[in-house]
Amino acid sequence: MTCAVHPDEPSVATCVGCRQPLCRACATHTIDGAPSCTACAETAIARTSAYGGVVIAASAAVYVLLLAIGIRATAHARVLGAGLAAVGTIGFGRVLQVILKVPTSVEAIGTPRVDAAAGPR
User: Fold this and answer.
1) CA-CA-CA-CA torsion sign (47, 51, 53, 59)
2) DSSP-assigned states of every residue in 86-112
3) What order of strands is seen across the sheet that includes strand 34-36?
4) Closest to 51 measured CA to CA, from 114, 101, 95
5) What percentage of the chain reaches a pLDDT higher than 90?
6) Going by DSSP bridges, is the β-strand pair 29-31/105-108 parallel, antiparallel, or unpaired?
7) What pLDDT is attached to residue 62?
């Protein structure tokens, strides 16, 4: 198979976003560890900027709700209620992240890692 952009070059990977074959020159980024082209990496970064705050805010709201429910249901074991709320919130946040397709990391090959939640390091 050859590169979608450079037909004279053999492909070395397939973009995780657009599924196009990539040569070494085009496989410039990774999204959550999988190879991607520059356009798909930029889209992933934009999606993180757009939805990252939503995931955090929704997870915080769910944590408070689950904490209140957990403490009420386990009046004598408040630590258990808080623990169950934390586990439920982590699960909710991860499910929301998958549904919204928010990547956890986008990195340019050969450069420092860019954490989607924290920005460049």
Assistant:
1) negative
2) HHHHHHHHHHHHHHHT--SEEEETTS-
3) 34-36, 29-31, 105-108, 114-115, 119-120
4) 101
5) 23
6) antiparallel
7) 84
- Model-level pTM greater than 0.85? no
Q: Which tens digits make up the pLDDT trace of 61-90?
A: 888 887 777 666 666 666 676 777 778 888
Could you give the maximum distance between any two Cα atoms of the chain, in Å? 70
DSSP state of 2: B
The answer to whether residues 103 and 52 touch, using CB atoms and an 8 Å cutoff, is no
Return the pLDDT at 21. Answer: 94
Task: Measure the CA–CA gap between 44 and 72, rounded to whole angstroms.
Answer: 40
Cα(33)–Cα(18) distance, rounded to whole angstroms? 15
Which has the closest alpha carbon to 10: 22, 26, 19?
22
